Structures are given as structure tokens and as C-alpha cells.
Fold this sequence. Notes:
The complex is a heterodimer.
Chain A (H helix, E strand, L loop, with lengths): L1 H10 L17 E7 L8 E6 L13 E7 L7 E7 L4 E4 L7 E10 L2 E3 L5 E5 L10 H22 L10 H16 L3 E4 L8 H20 L3 E5 L2 H17 L11 E3 L4 H15 L3 E5 L5 H12 L2 E6 L5 H7 L2 E4 L1 H11 L2 H29 L4 H6 L3
Chain B lengths: L3 H19 L3 H38 L5 H21 L9 H32 L5 H16 L2 H7 L17 H36 L12
Helix pairs in contact in B: 2-3, 5-6, 5-7
Amino acid sequence: MVVTLLLLAASAPAQTAPPDTVPAPRPPSGLVAADVPNDAGRGIDLTWKGSPDDIAGATIVTQYHLARSTTPAGPWTLIDSVAAGTVAKRDQNVDRGAEYFYRVDASGPGGITLAGSITGPVRATSQVINQTRWSVMVGTILFFGFVLFFMASAQSGKKPFVRRIPGIDAIEEAIGRATEMGRSVLYVPGIQDINEMQTVAGLVILESVAKLTARYETPITVPVTYPIPFTIAEEMVKGGYLHAGRPDAYDSNSVRFVSPEQFAYVAAVTGIMMRDRPAAHIFMGSFYAESLLLAETGFATGAIQVAGTANVHQLPFFVVACDYTLIGEELYAASAYLSGEPKLVGGLKGADLMKILIITAIIAGCVLESLGQHGFKLWMTTQ
Amino acid sequence: MKREVPLFITAVIGLFMILSFFVPHQWVSVPADFLQGSAVILVAFGYVLGGANALRVNFDGISRRSPGWQYKVVLVVALLTTVTVGAIEGREFLNPGMRSKWIYDWIYSPMASTMFALLAFFIASAAFRAFRIRTVEAGLLAVAALIVMLGRVPLGDLLTDWLFQLKWLPGAPHTLHLSTFQEWIMDIPQNAAKRAIIIGAALGVMATGLRVILGIERSYLSGED
């Protein structure tokens, strides 16, 4: 009986308070529209003060609607809606030089409240110089000046001293070993396209490597990921054989287009390692997750391995799995080192001088910040 | 002329692209954007050359019955099938329900994941070699790696919760867990070394770019002088 009563009580409709009527939100205010500085006239920054009803946890305001028009009287076009609590937005869909008027409306469960006023006219304009990049410009000019100076100096007969880099010396040793064993050399110029400078560096080194393989009459295999590096790699290998005086020994199948897909490429290259058993593996360029897959498979085949990359997160894998590793800038220095051309070697000295300048700037920045002087840091901050 | 014209084009466009980094005005930014967009056309032609090379290399291997020629047959069939299906289906080839999408989702994607999964085993074998303590440096590496690995999982804090209560030390953090040490290793010595490599590499990028733009590094053009 008690149970029945309890069930009846539970199933009876509960007395509820009359539903709350949520008021329409009060409008936001203080909309400011300004041309985005230091750009090509492609954006207008909008900032506003939120509605007084826009309070964390409350639901009177749920969204702000941003509308744009070319005349104060409209018609208005909704350009974006942002969540409550947001008070800034960049309109990046503007025509350069055109005048625009903006308004921001608030909406919530109680309805939409149109803005009390409109802002404008404002127009997006392009600037001649990005004012936040003066420091980079000065650094670039100085760096280019240093490099050109040392190149000219090296060309005039002052060949600068360059320390031995064991990893680069090991390339010739690896090719020699492949020759002794009667096996081929595998050269992997990274997995990125030509817009990655490490790929360019890898391809430049390839010519020197191809020259050595041509001289030693050792076959070389170069699997490439993207089509543009593929065509350049073909030129590099051809050039290497030509400069070694053995253009007839060039095998048109030595440079192979594989796939831009990362793991399809890994499957192809590890397949070459396991089937053809090259005696030397040279990895020079930009690598990601495939670095360890390639290097560990290569290690398992017993090949001598030399790697070089500026991708810091992949360096530990190469250090562990390869016999020699070129770290960061050594990859870029390798082509100058291998070719021995005074102009290229001179360029390395320019980079060294720039490094001294950067270290000085870092120390000066630390000292000035510690003294409460923020001008230098602001000058160095770019957008 | 065969070399001078490409070198001239490289120099002019290279310097113009550097200029576009500092000058956002439309007179510079619009042509710069156009040049970057035009690269897509070059890449499209490159794919034709690349595809032709892939077919030639593999047909050669099949005709000579080189080791593993059967795999080359699979590759050629897969390549031709995928390209044909994609060409028939047109621009919507990756929409749901399309055969190209099916090939990607049910053939390529699982195979790529399988290759990626091998990484777990390779990391274990590489770590085994890396952490063999033969020298002082290798010992330091092993200790640092142990702290970082343990400090990044809850077990590390659990193990050291009772150990490092340093309330008596003024100014010290409330507790010094293993995660505090791993944070210090990652934020200070690791970050400093990483940034040094990055700064050096960035200068190397600029120097290489300058050599290419000025035509000092010209081996990419062709072997003929």
C-alpha cells in the first residue's frame, strides 16, 4: 500500500514555477573598427565592449552578430557570429580601399537586440613597410653583407679555416665501403618538397655524393617523395656523373619518384634496403616520424649510415640509429665542405660572424630587460 | 644562355620574395601571392614526369625479372587503377561513397597506419641501444631520460610524493615531485640546446638561400657548364 502511494506520488505531475521570461540582452557598445596595421589592406580589426548582460555563467547573451554595410543605411550583411564573452574579431574578407560601416548586435534566448549605433566609415589600406620587421631587415642586410664579404675575401685567396666535420668525412668512407663490398649506395634527400630549405641542402649534397659514386663506379639509388625535387635530383646525379667524367655510367633508373605519402615512401625505401641491401645509407634533409623507421631498418641490414637534418625532434633518432649525424647547420655547411669551393666555404664564415652577433644581442637583451629597459625587446618583436 | 636565363629568373624572383616579407603593399604582395600560387602548375607537370618515371622504373624491373618483381606488378596495377578511378570520378573523387575514397579509407589508410605502428617496436630497439651506459655522457643521458619518462606519467609523482617534501626549505616549491625535475630538464637544458640548434639551422637556411639566389650555388640547374 505504501509502495503504491509512493509510486502514485512519484508519477503525479510536479508543481513547477511559471517559466522565467528571459529578457532580451542589452546591446554591446563602443565598437571600434580599425585598419589592420602592417598588412596588404586585407583586414579590419573590430573591438567592442560586451553587453552589460554578458556575464560569465548567465545565458542572457549567447552570441554577438557582426554585420557590415557599404552605406550607413544598409543593406547589412552578416559577416560572422561569435560566442558571448568575445570582444574582438578581424574581418578578413574586405576589398582594399572600400569604405565599410559595421555594427554588432547581441542575441540570446530573449531575442536579438540591434546595435544602438554604427561605426564607420573605415577602409583597409596597405602599408609600404611592415614597421614591426625593421629588426629582421637590419639582421638580414647584415647577414647578407657578412656572407658576401667573406665570399669575396675567400675568392681573393684567403681561404678560411673550417673545422673537420666527422659526419661529412664519413660520407666518402661509406661510399668507399660500398665500393669494396660491390654494393650500392642509398641516398634519401628527406621527405619534404622543394620549398623546404633542408631539401635544397640535401639535393646540393647529392651532387657531391653522385660525383663520388661515379668516380668509384658504385651504383646509387635516390628515392624521392615530391616531383620537383625528383627532377632536380635527376639533374644533380647526372651532373655528378658528368663532373666525374663518367656521363655514360649514369643510370636513368637511379633516381626514382616514389610517393609524397609519408608511409608509402617508407614502405618503398625500406623495401629497397631489404631487397637491394645497399652498403651505405645517406639521409640528408627534412625528416619526421619516418626517420627512425628508415634508420632502424637500415641498422638491421648492417649498412653504414650517415644522416643529417635540422629537424631537432628527429635528431635523437638519427644519433641513436646512425653511425654519424650532421646536426642542424652542419647539414647546410656540408655542400660547401664537400665541394671545397672557396666562395661557398667563405659563406660559412659569414654565418659564424652572424652567430656572434646574435649571441651578443641575446646577452644585451637579457641585461636591458633586467634593467627594466624594454625598448630593445619591443624592437626585436615582429608580427 | 641555358644557365644565365634560369639564374637571372631565380635571382630576380628570389630577391622579390625576400622584399615581399618586408613590404606588405599590394604592388609587392599581389605578385608575390601570384608567384606562390603558380608553383602549383609547375608541380602538376612534375607529377606527370614522376608518374612516368615510376612506371618506367617498375616496367624495367618486371621485364628484367629483377628480385621482387612481383611487388612491382602490384605497384603498377595499383598505380594505374587508382589514377584511372580518380580520373573517371573527377573533382569529387574524395567525396563519401566514391571509389577513390574507398581505396584511400580501406586500403591506403590501414597500410599507412601499419607502417606507423612499427615505430613503437623500433623505438624500443633504439632505446635499448641508446640507454646502454658505457660513458659518463651516456649515463647522464640515461638518467635524464629516466627522469623525463617517469616524470611525465602519474606513476612518477606517486613514487616520489613522500620523498621530496621540502616544506623546511624557504622559497622551495611545496613539493618536489619527479615531474618538477622533468619540467626543469625540458624547459632549461633541453630548450637551450634546441634553440641553439635552431638558430644555427636558421642561419644555414639563409646562407643556402642566398647562395641559390645569387647563383653561387647553381648545381641544381644542370651538370653542363
